[in-house]
Specification:
The protein is mostly helical. The protein has one domain. Helix content is about 65%, strand content about 5%. The chain is built from 11 helices and 2 strands; from the N terminus they run ββααααααααααα. The protein has helices spanning about 25-30, 40-70, 85-115, 115-140, 140-165, 170, 185-200, 205-215, 215-235, 240-250, 260-280; strands at about 5-10, 20-25. Strands 1-2 form a two-stranded antiparallel sheet. The chain is globular and about 60 Å long. The N and C termini lie close together (about 10 Å).
């Protein structure tokens, strides 16, 4: 769970109790100049979200390993540098799968379509199919389905805090598993926006198309992040809710209805991050943003 100035991780220990860990967020990213630069801040936020997610999963694995080896529970998340290789591999694989591969498949059909606009539209549809298919496929695995249930618990708890609902499992369960600030919505916006941006480039040679798909990913992320911020802030407006509805629908693939024990873990995380924010800066003890 990411707050205003801190983050916190809560893990269900194999023996049943909840282990929590919190630490400050990078001040340059969350309170410095970069956080005030539109479009550029989205790239930094995505990189940091990937870092936090990887470190949180590693911390969860450490808790289980420590239990199996009769060691003391870990008290801190793994160092950021230790997950750098994992992040680079993940980003490279994501770009190849969701940007380069759809471009190559659409390029095969370009000779028959003889239209750059139609080819780019086909590429966008293939990219969307890859995204939906990938989320559905990994969600069918029991371990990932459990992770998605914790994702749903996270959304429910953030909704509860924002709406002033009592932070107890029975009350939190009444909240929605969909949230306008979810990263799943960001992915969909990136895919849709890519159709427009790449259509403007026409159908250049293969090497230039490949280079454009790689180099323009940060641009797409920066624009999509600004839309996500705007839509979350103006979520109560009917027109905004219409545009964001597909993203909320896609979240049905990355969230599951959690049980009470999973909700309790999410409650522990949000309480830990709010306590850390309040101890450091009382004025920042407001509702935290989810990090999904």
């Amino acid at each position: 769970m990411r707050g205003r100035r801190h983050m916190a991780v809560a893990v269900r220990h194999p023996e049943g109790h909840i282990v929590t860990c919190s630490e400050p967020l990078p001040p340059r990213l969350y309170g410095g100049r970069l956080s005030k630069i539109p479009f550029a801040r989205g790239i930094g936020m995505l990189w940091e979200a990937l870092t936090l997610g990887t470190r949180a999963l590693s911390f969860s694995a450490q808790v289980k390993t420590a239990h199996e080896n009769a060691e003391d529970e870990p008290t801190a998340l793994p160092d950021s540098s230790s997950v750098r290789q994992t992040k680079l591999i993940s980003l490279s694989a994501g770009i190849c799968l969701f940007f380069v591969a759809p471009m190559l498949l659409a390029g095969i059909l370009h000779g028959q379509a003889e239209s750059a606009v139609l080819t780019n539209l086909i590429e966008g549809l293939v990219r969307l199919a890859f995204l939906v298919g990938y989320l559905w496929l990994i969600g069918s695995a029991p371990d990932i389905a459990r992770v998605f249930a914790y994702h749903g618990a996270e959304h429910k708890v953030v909704h509860a805090e924002e709406q002033g609902v009592l932070l107890e499992p029975a009350s939190v369960q009444e909240c929605s598993t969909a949230h306008p600030r979810c990263g799943t919505t960001l992915l969909l916006v990136v895919v849709v926006l890519s159709v427009v941006v790449f259509a403007l480039l026409g159908h250049p040679p293969l090497w230039l198309r490949t280079l454009s798909r790689i180099l323009l990913v940060p641009v797409l992320i920066g624009i999509s992040y600004e839309w996500l911020r705007f839509s979350a802030t103006h979520f109560q407006q009917a027109l905004v809710r219409v545009f964001i509805w597909p993203g909320l629908l896609l979240q049905s693939l990355t969230t599951r209805e959690p049980d009470d024990e999973q909700v309790a873990v999410a409650i522990a995380a949000i309480r830990a991050v709010m306590a850390a924010d309040e101890d450091a800066q009382p004025q920042y003890a407001a509702a935290p943003m989810n990090s999904a």
